[in-house]
Amino acid sequence: MSDKTLSGGAAPVLVTGGAGFIGSNFVLDWLGSGCGPVINLDKLTYAGNLENLASVEARADYTFVHGDIRDRALVDRLLREHRPRAVVHFAAESHVDRSIAGPEAFLRTNIDGTFAMLEAAREYYGTLTGEERERFRFLHVSTDEVYGTLAPDDPAFHEDTPYAPNSPYAASKAASDHLVRAWVHTYGLPALITNCSNNYGPYQFPEKLIPLMIANALKGKALPVYGDGQQVRDWLYVVDHCRALRAVLELGRVGETYNVGGGNQRSNLDVVKTLCALLDELAPGSKFAPHFGLVQFVTDRPGHDRRYAIDARKLEGELGWRAEESFETGLRKTVEWYLGNAAWVEHVTSGAYQQWVAENYAGRAAAEASR
User: Fold this and answer.
1) Alpha helix (H) residue ranges in 16-95
2) Which of 46, 156, 211, 281 is paired with 340 by a 20 to 30 Å CA distance?
3) What are the angstrom distances between the C-alpha of 115 and each of 32, 112, 149, 186, 248?
């Protein structure tokens, strides 16, 4: 991939949700690769953290704006003043458990917010001419959960797999995908969609499986595993995902969807076992080793999809992208990062976060421990 081509001179990209997990990794990767300036618009909800971006906050080519993607006046002003060559739309509520407990916020952000961004981008695109108009792109970053669930022997999700979302989160993301598609075909907005598998890596908020297990294990807390732990996910190292997004922006065909997967299908229980073995090795002074002894099976969540898997051959064949990290190498890097950034974990796991964890897991009956 040519960073010179990507940078396109001095024109910035407008990133929404750039203080979140994937968004902040994308901002760091984009700036680190010399791809041009970044305008980062983030509301800073519980999962947004400016500490993720402390290493770039003083750079002249990075601008942070605190605001809501549904604030049309703000978004219109940013587009008008900064004239970005692309919008990279990460901003979303993304935790399935939270969507079950309170779906309204997911509809407001993921559907209403995407609609607002599409309308702002459409109006802005209408003002562009020449090279600016030709190169402008709207990249909508979505999830494989829109496709529903797979049986053990089903083929992996591909770009033409019918949508069948099973959680409020997945339904809200499916709706946003459909909006983007409609704005391409009805209004000619040069947009693209990516649907990714489960991401993991640095800066992930400790409500998701891998960072939650690391944080709990190091404190000797229970490692809650839903049901029998045999739910299968395709794990994608977040930096590989960021590289894929850069490829889609540079080379992707307008109106197309590209699935992004790491090719690493693992059951949740296998992930926890591997993670605990790494902690035993990398934190030999932990008094809670062997950490797998902390596993506690808990009642499964409602509507829990059994298996996700991504067929990324379109992305690989058309754009030349390949995941560089295996699950083993990526997970080792992730554990090493969390062990080296204990202060970050302490800062983000605020009282509000602790209250959420307690509410989410306290009511779940412990299942048989002898699995």
Assistant:
1) 21-32, 72-82
2) 46
3) 31, 5, 26, 14, 22
CB 131 within 8 A of CB 137: no
Contact present, 234 and 164 (Cβ < 8 Å): no
Q: What is the pLDDT of residues 126-174, one digit of tens each?
A: 999 999 999 999 999 999 999 999 999 999 999 999 999 999 999 999 9
Amino acid at 55: S
Residues 219 and 354: their CA atoms lie apart, in Å, by 13
φ/ψ of 288, rounded to 5, equals -100, 5
Residue 71 confidence (pLDDT) above 70: yes
Which sequence positions are flagged as catalytic? 144-145, 169
Provide φ and ψ at 340, rounded to 5°: -90, -5
CA distance 136 to 132: 6
Residue among 197, 220, 198, 221 at smallest CA distance from 210 = 198
Residue 251, burial from CB neighbour count under 10 angstroms (0-12, 13-18, 19+): middle
49 closest CA partner among 345, 359, 370? 345
Question: CB of 48 within 8 A of CB of 42?
Answer: yes
End-to-end CA distance of the chain: 47
If you average pLDDT over residues 54-65, what whole number do you get? 96
How far apart CA 130 and CA 139 sit, in angstroms, is: 20
